[in-house]
Write a structure and sequence with these properties.
This protein is an all-beta fold. The protein has one domain (about 1-130): Metal Binding Protein, Guanine Nucleotide Exchange Factor, Chain A (Beta Complex). About 0% of the residues lie in helices and about 35% in strands. It contains no helices and eleven strands. Strands 3-5-10-9-7-6 form a six-stranded antiparallel β-sheet, with no helix packed on it. A hairpin with a 6-residue loop joins strand 6 (about 90) and strand 7. It starts with about 25 loop residues before the first strand and ends with a strand. The structure holds zinc ion (ZN).
């Protein structure tokens, strides 16, 4: 096991998470700036989710077991897909749909399980906060 990861990013989250646990800034696509969520619409949530590496949508719907990616723990949680300003989805990958930018289709920026229609997660590291 590798315990050398220093979580130096924890400190700057207070800029992004307001006192009531919601996003204090708008959430936009890192690549094209398309708005994903307005400020104050998502809840900060810690959950371990595996997301494949960022790529174009056409390469995301693979069911290969050897997909490279990373486990992310800091997310924005939304319980209704109509809360999103703009968001796209990949085809089902098993019981998962990945969320992608609606405009440039880069992703995944988030995660959704078909087993829970009321939970959508946007990975903090994969979006910009403006
Ligand atoms: Zn985009």
């Amino acid at each position: 096991m590798d315990d050398n990861h220093q979580s130096s990013e924890t400190s700057d989250r207070s800029d992004l998470v307001s006192e009531n646990g919601k996003n204090s800034k708008s959430i936009v696509c890192q690549r094209c700036g398309s708005k994903v969520l307005c400020e104050g619409t998502a809840l900060f949530a810690e959950k371990e989710l595996f997301l494949p590496s960022m790529r174009k949508k056409s390469n995301l719907s693979t069911t290969e077991a050897s997909v490279d990616g990373e486990t992310l723990t800091a997310h924005w949680f939304v319980d209704d897909m109509f809360t999103f300003e703009n968001v796209g989805f990949t085809k089902d990958v098993g019981r998962i749909k990945y969320l992608i930018c609606a405009d440039c289709e880069i992703g995944p920026i988030g995660w959704h399980s078909l087993d829970d229609k009321k939970s959508f997660y946007i990975a903090m590291e994969r979006v910009d906060h403006v």
